[in-house]
Amino acid sequence: MNDAAIQTILKYIETNLFGPKYTWPTVYFEERSYARWAATEILESIMDHPLRSADEIIEEFIFKMMIYSAWTDDSDICFRFSVAKETAENILEIL
Question: What number of CA atoms fall less than 13 Å from residue 83's CA on the CB side?
Answer without folding.
Answer: 20
